[in-house]
Design a protein that fits this description.
This protein has 83 residues and is mostly helical. The protein has helices at 12-21, 25-41, and strands spanning 61-62, 78-79.
């Protein structure tokens, strides 16, 4: 499996390999439970949050919509009428 962080804690690879080696569902489930516990206990997760945003625009602006990260995409936006 790819490891883009290039950081690996002792014991992680063995737990990850156990999930790949499991031949049946109960064994795989137990292996993933152990891996998940390791990940949580070693704080290998990065909690993320989304900052609130305010979007103000003219009524002539059409098809502008906000999205979850608060970064609207302007690829489908158009202006109605002329100035």
């Amino acid at each position: 499996m790819r490891n883009s962080s290039k950081i690996e804690l002792p014991g992680y690879r063995e737990l990850l390999d156990a999930t790949l080696d499991a031949q049946d569902q109960p064994t795989r489930k137990a292996a993933f439970a152990k891996l998940q516990r390791f990940v949580i206990e070693q704080a290998m997760q990065l909690p993320q949050f989304i900052a609130p945003t305010i979007l103000i625009y003219n009524p002539r602006v059409q098809n502008l919509s906000d999205n979850l990260p608060g970064t609207p995409k302007f690829t489908e936006v158009w202006l109605q009428g002329s100035a």
